[in-house]
Amino acid sequence: MAERYKLASGIIIHRNSLPNGDLLISLFNQTGKLRAIAKKGKKLGGNIARMSLFNDITVQYYQKDANSLAVLTQVQLNGSLEKLTLPEIYPYAHILAEMVDKLSQNDLSEPKIYSYLASGLKGLSEFADAEKITIIYAWKIIQQAGLAPRLEHCSICNKNELSNRFNLNTGGITCTSCNSGVYISNEVLEYLQTIHKTTIRAMLEHKLLNSKEHWKLLKNYSSYHINEIKSLASLETMI
Ligand SMILES: [Zn+2]
To answer: Who surrounds ion ligand 1 at CB < 5 A?
Structure first.
C-alpha cells in the first residue's frame, strides 16, 4: 500500500532522543510543522545520524491521521550548515529554531516564517555577528506570527509621547502618563522600532547597542506572549 506513505521536506527545529531509543523530531517547512518519530528497532532507510538539529531533510512517513505522530520510514539529507554546530553559534541557532517550534502548530501554513528561519540560519553560518542576526530575526519571526510589540504609540492609551517603560502585559511601550512596565533605553526602543519598519538587509547595517538589555526584553516578551524559550534563558546565563 505504497500510497499510504507521504513525503515531506523541511528543517529540523526540535530533536529529542527518548530513553527507549526512539527519536522524536519536528520538521518545519512552508506549510507548517510535522512532528515525527523514528522508532528504534524499525528499519529506517537512510542515515538516522543525519537527523541533527537545523539540518534540511526529506522524509518518507506514514501517519494514521492528522493529529497523530508521523512514523518515519526513510530519511534523506538535503543540506547541512556545518558552522551552526560550533559552540559559539549553536546557542543562537537554537533560539531561532525553538522560537519557531513554540510558535508553530501542525498544519499551519507559515511560508514567511519558514523563509525567515532558513535565511536566519544561513546568516548565522555566514556572518560574524551572531548576536545581531539572532535578535533581528527573532523579532521578525514574532512580527510575522502576528505578535509584534506596540512601539510607536502607547500600548495602553494610544498616545504618542513615549516614556522609557515597556509594559509586557499590554505588549509594548507606554506613554509618559501611563508610564508602566520595565525600563527600556532609547537605543533599544529605536532599534526595535527600526526592525519592525525596515528590511533585514537594511537592519544589518545598524549597530546593535545594549545587547544585554535586548536579550532580557526578548526573553521576557517571548515568555509572556509565546512561551518560555529555554535556549534564551540559557543564553542569558552565558552572556
Ligand atoms: Zn498611555
So the answer is: 154, 156-157, 159, 175, 178
